[in-house]
Amino acid sequence: MSQSQPSTRRLARRVSWETILALLLLIAVAGGTFLNKDFLTSDNWANLLANFVEIALMALPLSLIVITNDIDLSVASMLGLSSSLLGLLWEYKLAMPLAILICLVVGALCGAFNGFMIVRFRLPSLAVTIGTLALFRGFAYIILGDKAIADFPPEYTGFGIGVIPYTFIPMPFVLFIVLALIFWVVLHHTTIGRSLYAVGGNQTAARFSGVNISRLKMLLFILSGVISALAGIVFTFRFSSSRADNGTGFELSAIAAVFLGGVTVQGGKGTVTGVVLSLLLIGVINNVLTLADVASEILRIVTGSLLIISILLPNLIASTRERLRLMQRQKEIAKLGTASVAK
Amino acid sequence: MIFLSRSKTLSTPTNHPMIINSLTRTIAVVCSVTFLGMVAYAQDKPIKKGLKFTAIPKNINNPYMVIQSGGAMDACKELGIEGKVVGPSETGASAQVPYINTAITQHQNAILIAANDPNALVPYLKKAIGQKITVVTLDSDTLPEGRNVFINQASAEGIGQSLVQTLARQIGSSGDFAILSATPNATNQNTWIKYMQEELKKPEYKDMKLVKIAYGNDEDQKSFTETQGLLQAYPSLKGIISPTSVGIAAAARYISTSPYKGKVALTGLGTPNQLREFVKDGTIKEFELWNPSDVGYLAAYAAAQIASGNIQGKEGETFAAGKLGTRTVGKDGVVLLGPPTVFNADNIDKFNF
Q1: What digits encode the pLDDT tens for the residues A143-177?
Q2: B107 touches chain A (CB under 8 A)
Q3: Is CATH 1.10.150 correct for A7-342?
Q4: Of A187, B42, B93, B149, which sees the most CB atoms within 10 A?
Q5: What mean pLDDT, rounded, does chain B reach?
Q6: How far, in Å, CA of A172 to CA of A169, rounded?
Q7: Cβ neighbours of residue A237 under 8 Å, at least 6 residues apart?
Q8: What predicted TM-score, i.e. pTM, was given to this entire model?
Q9: Looking at domain B156-289, what is its CATH homologous superfamily?
């Protein structure tokens, strides 16, 4: 249990990253308000939040996966598959609740397939999910080809584009708020959460301390599949459109949000709060820049740079601290040395 | 419905015969400009001052879209409208939505949009219309409830007729010819071919015979070998119509290096940049396409007239559209651009797209 000291230090570092994110978010909101009189309107905030709701949903399970030192690149393809399947089932006159259920189950199966390949054959998740990124998108195209299905019932599309009365919170965003709360509780206040960090920090140690790593990973990938499928359903209703290419490229935005949120590529670190803050930050920055008519390539450059900074900065901070610590220790040793010589 | 399909290649053009040589064309232009001036004086209701328009192309940096948006901006400049072009860098169904929302938030007076998806944008465009923003779709339409008017670059019927007429001019209305299409189930191409066959029933084409419809699947290599196959299988072939930009380019490449060059007429739909060398070396005499710049130009004029309250976008209303003359709103709020531009050695260097 000599870990307690580094872990407090780690905690301190984590808190500071979230504080940085919160500060950046404040600056972005202040900047947006200052630059554009339309920024702080409820309509604009409804659009701002609605814009990234699918990415936000997918980022939640993805955060847990990255914490355990894995990755799921197939999330957006599962979104596309779920959206296509929903369209197809609706076209075949299935009752909507049943169609939604089937989509979620198929999402779970896709996730289970990812998990199975990774756990059973010990394949790297990066390689497996690059494969299924193409595979699931391929299924989506098999299901719908280049057709689009659009005549979804108004009560569902109304959910997709509506806001909660008297607020600016888009209805689908409620799903995200609820799920984020659940994820927060699970990650930070349960043994499952602790085992996730343990697995990400040191798999062997986690195994020896009795964590069933295979089952945990399997569950995570299934969860990712189900929530990606849910994101596909939200997407379909939000745009009243089921198409095989729906959500193409969203995986990168979701991963960017996770990394920027302070979940590190090396695993073992990250919080739900950080990820939520980074989602909001990216959403606000995109919105402010779009309102200022900044070209979409520039938007990409900004998101890309944020991603790089988010990986670089914590590393720089960590290595600087490490160097300082070493210097400190060397000084102490030197002092000890001279002391003993003096004796 | 034709323009709702999402064909990746630029596979579309339009219509009536343009049997005008460059001299008469010049005269026509001079006359119409004069005439226009009078029309403008006589019936033009004023365009409101201080209008702000947002043009949203399918994606930015798409050369075709850049020219189309450029036409819209030209019209805005003529009318004293503050116009801007914003849009996504990819063409997903949802990618344009943030830009629509932004235009609403910015209280723009009109949105000119080439829709990436006929359905996905509708709820958001409806919201725009609900806030008194004029919505004009161009190039690719949405469902009618998503916009005030749609600027249609070409009617399917017009394209079918025009292609037959262009070929007839080149082969003296007699002889065998073939069609090199895209895929057997390509919606646009099949509709055009249907109208070509309608047109062929007219008595003046009684000596022209369509011997074969070949499919190059909009793949360069396949289109190339299909052309080769056609010319070998039908030695009497006088002409080929390829209503797809991939097909006509591949056919031109084959013919230009074969003994058929100059003997077999090739026409169809393509872009000037793609076919310039073949027009210059004599492989192609004439081909067609609408001018994308005019599509944007007309869209901006239509939006300006609606935003100024001069028209509402109802069937039968006419409006002045600057250098294009007057246009009439057709059924379902569709405004036709008019005859396609015919490109030949005389005019091709004036076009860069």
Answers
A1: 998 788 988 999 999 999 999 999 999 999 999 99
A2: yes
A3: no
A4: B149
A5: 87
A6: 8
A7: A152, A156, A157, A159, A160, A161, A172
A8: 0.78
A9: Response regulator (3.40.50.2300)
